[in-house]
Write a structure and sequence with these properties.
Layout: H1 25-38, E1 44-47, H2 54-63, E2 72-76, H3 82-90, E3 91-92, E4 104-105, H4 107-110, E5 115-119, H5 126-138, E6 140-142, E7 149-151, E8 155-160, H6 164-169, H7 175-181, E9 184-187, H8 198-212, E10 219-220, H9 222-230, H10 236-250, E11 255-256, H11 263-266, H12 281-294, H13 300-322, H14 327-334, H15 338-347
Parallel strand pairs: 1-8, 1-9, 2-5, 5-8, 10-11
Antiparallel strand pairs: 3-4, 6-7
Length: 352
């Protein structure tokens, strides 16, 4: 979703929220919670699939808050290794590690009096989670390699595209940090859960990319709109945005027609992700059932974790093969970003 769009809401529902589009019940609830929580200093946890607009909601909370005149700082926790992420968040002093030739201000300090948005918070390691917990509780930290304590007045908004309760059960996320972050939770609906908003989103992207590309595409062919509203959108609004941009660029006239959309939307290819045409789910399920029966001595939590990891590993391996090991294509098909995919390829020993 773009950063320039304005959501259109009924007047009795308050002012519009920058960057958000949609008037269906699901988004109305997002608007209500966003306005309500913005007036406080409480930590906020944003949950939703990749591409649902978590960063846009985080910015809206900041812009509607009393901290709007302060900085808004975004950190993608899934994009950096643990040591680099710690330095990125908290800063470091000269000589703290190889390559630290100067003192560096961290993102928490840079966000003083404003808001810091921690995207993919589920990607942080237990060691770093301890330090994050301290910042949330005490509003203080030390830079890497330094003993001087720095105090900050920074609001924290975190986001995850994974179920953090499952991450806690799997031993990958601290329960105390979860409850500290989870003062208020806003769940962003997937696009398939708010299909009534697809025409408005499509209209916005038509205007945006017509202007950007010096085109004059005014409308969508009825058959094309039917296809857009019937599709499951594993990549959510970001995927819709990309397809409309493609259609505008390829259009020869004033109408975006069905043939300008990807074959997946035209019904010429099977759906993606778990229902991808080359994935034999029946065989996969049978294997997992057999695995569960053989491992009857495992604890319920351990068994659940192993099953989830087996499913994820098989799915990633299959999608990588279908995409001829092109990571950008595979990440888009899986609905995750490339850095997250790289980490999972490493974790599951699929890098080769």
């Amino acid at each position: 979703m773009t950063r320039t769009a304005l959501g259109s809401l009924p007047k009795n529902d308050g002012p519009p929220i920058p960057a958000l589009i949609g008037s269906g019940p699901a988004m109305q609830e997002v608007y209500r919670l966003t306005r309500q929580v913005a007036q406080s200093n409480a930590s906020v946890l944003l949950l939703g699939e990749t591409g649902t607009g978590k960063e846009l909601v985080a910015k809206a909370i900041h812009q509607l808050s009393r901290r709007a005149s302060g900085p808004f700082v975004r950190v993608n926790c899934g994009a950096l290794h643990e040591n680099l992420l710690e330095s990125e968040l908290f800063g470091h002093v000269r000589g703290a590690f190889t390559g630290a030739v100067d003192n560096r201000t961290g993102r928490f300090q840079a966000a003083h009096t404003g808001t810091i948005f921690l995207d993919e918070i589920n990607s942080t390691t237990p060691k770093l989670q301890v330090k994050l917990l301290r910042v949330l509780q005490e509003h203080e930290f030390e830079r890497v390699g330094d003993s001087h304590t720095i105090r900050v007045d920074t609001r924290v908004i975190a986001a995850s595209n994974r179920d953090l309760i499952e991450e806690i059960e799997a031993g990958r996320f601290r329960e105390d940090l979860y409850y500290r972050l989870n003062v208020v939770t806003i769940r962003l609906p997937a696009l398939r859960e708010r299909r009534e908003d697809i025409p408005a989103l499509t209209d916005h992207f038509l205007k945006l990319y017509s202007q950007c590309n010096n085109r004059h595409v005014l409308r969508v062919e009825p058959k094309a709109m039917e296809a857009l509203q019937a599709y499951d959108w594993p990549g959510n609004v970001r995927e819709l945005q990309n397809y409309i941009e493609r259609g505008v660029v390829l259009a020869q006239g004033e109408e975006l027609t069905l043939d300008l959309l990807p074959e997946t939307l035209q019904g010429k290819k099977g759906p993606r992700i778990g229902r991808h045409r080359h994935v034999d789910l029946d065989t996969l399920i049978a294997e997992l059932v057999e695995f569960g029966l053989q491992d009857a001595g495992a604890t319920q939590k351990g068994l659940h974790k192993d099953i989830v990891e087996r499913v994820e590993r098989k799915l990633i391996a299959q999608v990588m093969a279908d995409c001829e090991n092109v990571q950008i294509k595979a990440a888009a098909r899986l609905g995750i970003n490339r850095n997250t995919l790289r980490k999972k390829l490493h974790d599951y020993n699929l890098e080769q």
